[in-house]
Each structure stands twice: as structure tokens, then as C-alpha cells.
Amino acid sequence: LSGLDPAQPYFQGTPIEVRLDKSDADFVDIIHTDSAPTIPNLGFGIRPAIGHIDFYPNGGEEMPGCAKNPVSQIVDLDGIWEGTRDFVACNHLRSYKYYSDSIIYPDGFLGYPCASYDLFQQGNCFPCPEEGCPNMGHYADKFKDKVKKDFMKLYLNTGEARDFPLWRYKVTVTLSGKKKVKGYVNVALYGTGGNTKQYQITTGTLKPDNTYTAYIDVETNVGEITKVKFLWNNNWINPTLPKLGAASITVEAGQNR
């Protein structure tokens, strides 16, 4: 049984006979997309974990792409009716959009077991444990026999619009050069499954021999990595023309560690 942002008003805090609960089926997976409190935030979705596995994409409260201005939201690519519904209940309705995208992307929407969204964002729950991570949506039941805890909270990030799945990588860059400069470092990944755009790894003071780490959620499952593009730039024109390089770059995929 898949719960697509089960309702909060009149259901949260009620006995299990009244609402969706993991006792309702052999396997119950939940997608929480609008779990902010109904008062005062007008969240429509239930907040507590109520299934065998509970996914909280983007933290489960505010979905990317839902904060667009009302006019652009109502004049939606999918039509006026779809846009109007999104304007009224965008976060709530993301649950079924993620679910329908998950059918097309069997390897997408990996949910990382974690105590909180903040810890997930900081990279504390990366990579997936040895038994792997479940996929949010249509293929969540593949994880059915691996659930070990009473309840399991899973976190992930999604895109702002279709296609929604993102793939998480840990990128570690050690710089080489003669002296520190102010600027930023970008990295793009190339692989057998496709290429990514550039993602910022660090900004500020760049020191040679220092190591910088970032967790990036990219729009493509790059597969086996064949190449990494490293770019850096300083923030203003520097007449001494400083040079920086990458002594090493390490990329770790969340899925297969």
C-alpha cells in the first residue's frame, strides 16, 4: 500500500482504525510532501511516520518549485487546471507527481535512512547502508524484506520540475597551487549514463593542499564515471594571475558506495 501524502486534518493523532497505518497491509510505504502543521502553515499531509518506510523528500514540508509566483504557477506547462490545483495544493500534489516519475526511473528517488533532514543535508547519512537504500515510489516494495526497524524515516532531494529524480554524490577536492586565492570551485561529472552540469563544491578562500567536500544532488545517474571536469575562478581580476589545480578529486556514489 502506497500512501501519497496521507491527510493530516481529522486524521493525525487518531487511532490506527481511523487512519492509514502499517497494520493495513503486508507492506506500507508513505511519501510525505506537505507535513507542515495545518495551523498556521496549511499543511495537508500527516507528519508522523506511519508506514513500514516513510519518505520525506526535501524534508517533507516545502517542495522545490512550489514557491513560484501565483501567475506563473496557474499558467502551467500542464495546463490551466493543473496549474490552478498546484497553486492551491502544490506541496500536497507533489506526492503523486513523484510517484508517477518513479515508474519511469526505477533507479531514482533513493531514500537515505536518517534521523533528520538537517543531518541528511549535512551528509551525515551518506552513503547508503550495506543493504542499500529503498527507492521512493513505485519500486519501494523491493525493499520489503530488508526493513529491520519498527519505523524507518528516509530523506532525499528532488528537482523543482519534471523530471524530478536527483542522484546524490559526495565530491572531495584537494587543491594544488602556490598561494591562497578567493574564489569558487565547480565540478561536473561525466559517465557512462550521461553528464551533469557544473556544481559548486566550495566558495571563499581557496588554499592549496586543503581538501573541500560537498554533497551534490545531480540531475543524471552518471553510471560509471569516466571523467571529472574541474573549474575554478577568482572573484575579481587578479594581476598576479594565480594558478590553482586539483591534486585529487574523489567521487562517491550514494547507491553503491
Structure description:
With 257 residues, the chain is an alpha/beta fold. 32% of the residues are buried. It is built from 4 helices and 12 strands. The protein has helices at 38-41, 70-74, 80-104, 117-121; strands at residues 2-4, 29-31, 53-57, 112-113, 153-156, 167-177, 181-191, 194-195, 199-206, 211-218, 225-234, 244-253. The longest helix is centred in the middle third of the chain and has 25 residues, at 80-104. The two termini are 29 Å apart. It folds into 2 domains: 1-165, 3-Layer(aba) Sandwich (Rossmann fold); 167-253, Lipoxygenase-1 (Sandwich). The strands form 3 sheets. Strands 1-2-3-5-4 form a 5-stranded mixed sheet. Strands 7, 8, 9 and 11 form a 4-stranded antiparallel sheet that branches. The mean pLDDT is 91.
Jot down its keywords.
single chain, 257 residues, Rossmann fold, Lipoxygenase-1, 2 domains, 5-stranded mixed sheet, 4-stranded antiparallel sheet, 12 strands
In short:
This protein has helices at residues 38-41, 70-74, 80-104, 117-121, and strands at residues 2-4, 29-31, 53-57, 112-113, 153-156, 167-177, 181-191, 194-195, 199-206, 211-218, 225-234, 244-253.
CATH architecture of the largest domain: 3-Layer(aba) Sandwich
CATH topology of the largest domain: Rossmann fold
Major sheet: order of its strands?
1-2-3-5-4
| Estimated structural class | alpha/beta
| Helical percentage | 10-25%
CATH superfamily of the largest domain: Alpha/Beta hydrolase fold, catalytic domain
Count of β-strands: 12
What are the segments in which pLDDT stays under 50 over at least 5 consecutive residues?
none
The level 1 CATH classification of the largest domain is: Alpha Beta
**Oligomer state of the chains in this structure:** single chain
| Count of discrete alpha- or pi-helical segments spanning 4 or more residues | 4
Give the domain tally: 2
Radius of gyration over C-alpha positions, nearest whole angstrom: 21 Å
Strand proportion: 25-35%
